[in-house]
Amino acid sequence: MLFEFIATIAAGFGLAGIAMLITHLSKYAGKKAPRWLVPFFAAVGIFGFQIHQEYNWFDQQVAKLPQGVTVVKKVEQSTWFRPWSFAKPQTLRFMAIDSENTQANAYDKDIYLTNLYLFERRRSVQQIPQVIDCAAPARADYKIPSKNDISDVKQYVEQTSGWYALDNDDPLYTSICLDRQLI
């Protein structure tokens, strides 16, 4: 975020410098440039860079994802204080799963343990372990035990009441359950 701030200031100074050059050259042409030209160019540089970063944030984050982590859902949003977002909504959040490290339960082949990652602009990434029941279909948050025993997953599945139903077209369900059946 610090580098983005520095780049924003540099974009403002860069375009203000171009405006100063135009002002200086306009004196040689015998005309006087308007006084508002330098601050206007600085504002265009700052806002232009920020808008560019907001629209390219999703692609930059997806390019950084390790192999095996796939995007399952993205949230596009338009807001009143970003009027340009009504023309093209911005992706401000997305959800990805670690499909390469998804583990099937040894006791029940319809139960999978996977990591869900939540990305949001200007926030830290959240990792949430999930238990996916493909037979139901449903999902539940999973608290990782101190030891990695797959029987703990079985006990958790039997004891938890915090299941959330998944639709058959839910991206989490299709990427874990349906894609695994095709393999």
Describe this structure in words.
It is built from 4 helices and 7 strands. Strands 1, 2, 3, 4, 5, 6 and 7 form a 7-stranded antiparallel beta sheet that branches. α1 packs antiparallel against α2 (37-64). β3 and β4 form a beta hairpin. The mean pLDDT is 86. With 183 residues, the chain is α+β, with helices and mostly antiparallel strands. The chain has helices spanning 2-28, 37-64, 150-159, 171-182; strands at residues 69-77, 90-98, 103-104, 111-120, 126-133, 138-141, 164-165.
Write a short abstract of this structure.
The protein is 42% helix and 24% strand. It has 4 helices and 7 strands.
Counting helices, strands and paired strands, the structural category is alpha+beta
The main pleated sheet reads as: 7 strands, antiparallel
**Mean pLDDT figure:** 86
Span between termini:
41 Å
Order of helices and strands: HHEEEEEEHEH
Roughly what fraction of the amino acids lie in strands? 15-25%
Overall morphology: rod-shaped
Radius of gyration: 25 Å
Q: Please bin the fraction of helical residues.
A: 40-55%
SS field, number of helical segments: 4
Number of strands: 7
Spans of at least 5 consecutive residues whose pLDDT stays below 50 are none
